[in-house]
Design a protein that fits this description.
Elements lengths: L2 H10 L3 H14 L4 H13 L3 H14 L4 H13 L3 H14 L4 H13 L3 H14 L4 H13 L3 H14 L4 H13 L3 H14 L4 H13 L3 H14 L4 H13 L3 H14 L4 H13 L3 H14 L4 H13 L3 H14 L4 H13 L3 H14 L4 H13 L3 H14 L4 H6 L1
Helix pairs in contact: 1-2, 1-3, 2-3, 3-4, 3-5, 4-5, 5-6, 5-7, 6-7, 7-8, 7-9, 8-9, 9-10, 9-11, 10-11, 11-12, 11-13, 12-13, 13-14, 13-15, 14-15, 15-16, 15-17, 16-17, 17-18, 17-19, 18-19, 19-20, 19-21, 20-21, 21-22, 21-23, 22-23, 23-24
Length: 414
């Protein structure tokens, strides 16, 4: 048996170092054996030695400039190094040489997807599927690209097809679950996570996301059961601790929420949302200064975290430090100008400062963004009442009651 054949057999058995030794011998015997260089490059790629892999693909291409597979493989090595533009250049060349190379189109699509150029990614997956209609992963990745574009129905259509071709594709069920969650169809999402877990009982992310779906349905105990399982499978899964903390918060078990946020932060000290949510739990325990310390940290990690500014504003309001609160609401609104609750809360702070016209201006904006915000109408009514504009006050209490017929304080103040 020749050295090339020995290398090929070792490759197929996952014995990549042995394969490299055999390809070394093959190349020593025939320094112009382009396939031996290509295959040695692949073995180095499997060992994650991508620079050495590229050196070998370079040599294969130097010997045979029409070697489409070597270009494709060199593209894969650049992809693994996150050098996506170089990867695309190589896939371009592979396709130029072999226009029916479905894998090169698929790989180019994947590179464009990682560059967040999702339309170009979809064009390439289209071509890969046209050439090879049974390529389940091309459908799967095209679904992912549509998800990133928020075209969830198209995403689901693609996951459907991936599952039809490969009914044991746990990732496709998982991703279809995410798409249904994004459409707020949580029961369908749960059905898909169920299937992903049935196929792969160690799929920690599927348990985590099933927990999120149960949380959205306010079934917090079931959510916690799923986060428990995700953490059992992967004890370093910071997001699962964070989500379990949220579920405990929703059950008003704030110390348990804090304990879970502590764990999330221990695993990932740069998790801004874990600090934010730990702040919320402390706020609910009326430990406002400790809450502020956590919001400070969240903002230090992520200065564009509008929710952390909003929550810090609320804590300052509770401490009756209204100007500090307003400064934080200002920042939240600067980052997220569509945050109706930030306008509402800023209005509340101005009202507490007895600056009723400024309060009204903010309630106006909150209502413009969210016309069903009964609290904003009620609070605007209160501000008009303080200004002795009683008819305007009544009109606002009327509107608050129309939106929420059980709003006792609106009836009382009217």
């Amino acid at each position: 048996m020749g050295y090339f054949a020995k290398g090929f057999i070792s490759d197929s058995r996952g014995k990549y170092k042995m394969a490299i030794n055999s390809y070394n011998k093959a190349i020593e015997i025939d320094p112009k054996d382009a396939m031996a260089y290509n295959n040695r490059g692949s073995a180095y790629s499997y060992l994650k030695e991508y620079r050495k892999a590229i050196d070998n693909y370079d040599k294969a291409i130097e010997i045979d400039p029409k070697y489409a597979m070597a270009y494709n493989n060199r593209g894969n090595a650049y992809f693994d190094l996150k050098e996506y533009r170089k990867a695309i250049d190589n896939y371009d060349k592979a396709i130029e040489i072999d226009p029916k190379n479905a894998m090169a189109y698929y790989n180019r699509g994947h590179a464009y997807s990682d560059l967040k150029e999702y339309r170009k990614a979809i064009d390439n997956y289209d071509k890969a599927i046209e050439i090879d209609p049974k390529n389940a992963m091309a459908y799967y990745n095209r679904g992912h690209a549509y998800c990133e574009l928020k075209e969830y129905r198209k995403a689901i259509d693609n996951y459907d097809k991936a599952i039809e071709i490969d009914p044991k594709n746990a990732m496709a069920y998982y991703s279809r679950g995410i798409a249904y969650s994004d459409l707020k169809e949580y029961r369908k999402a749960i059905d898909n996570y169920d299937k992903a877990i049935e196929i792969d009982p160690k799929y920690a992310m599927a348990y985590n996301n099933r927990g999120i779906a149960y949380s959205e349905l306010k079934e917090y105990r079931k959510a916690i059961d799923n986060y428990d399982k995700a953490i059992e499978i992967d004890p370093k899964y910071a997001v699962a601790y964070y989500n379990r903390g949220n579920a405990y918060s929703n059950l008003k078990k704030y110390q348990e929420a804090i304990d879970n946020c502590d764990k999330a932060i221990e695993i990932d000290p740069k998790d801004a949302m874990a600090y934010n949510n730990r702040g919320n739990a402390y706020s609910n325990l009326k430990e406002y200064q400790v809450a502020i310390d956590n919001y400070d940290k969240a903002i230090e990690i992520d200065p564009k975290n509008a929710m952390a500014y909003y929550n810090r504003g609320h804590a300052y309001c509770e401490l009756k430090e209204y100007q500090e609160a307003i400064d934080n609401y200002d920042k939240a609104i600067e980052i997220d100008p569509k945050n109706a609750m930030a306008y509402y809360s800023r209005g509340h702070a101005y009202s507490d400062l007895k600056e009723y016209q400024k309060a009204i201006d903010n309630y106006d904006k909150a209502i413009e963004i969210d016309p069903k915000n009964a609290m904003a109408y009620y609070s605007r009514g209160h501000a008009y009442s303080e200004l002795k504009e009683y008819q305007k006050a009544i009109d606002n209490y009327d509107k608050a009651i129309e939106i929420d017929p059980k709003y006792a304080m609106a009836y009382y103040n009217r």
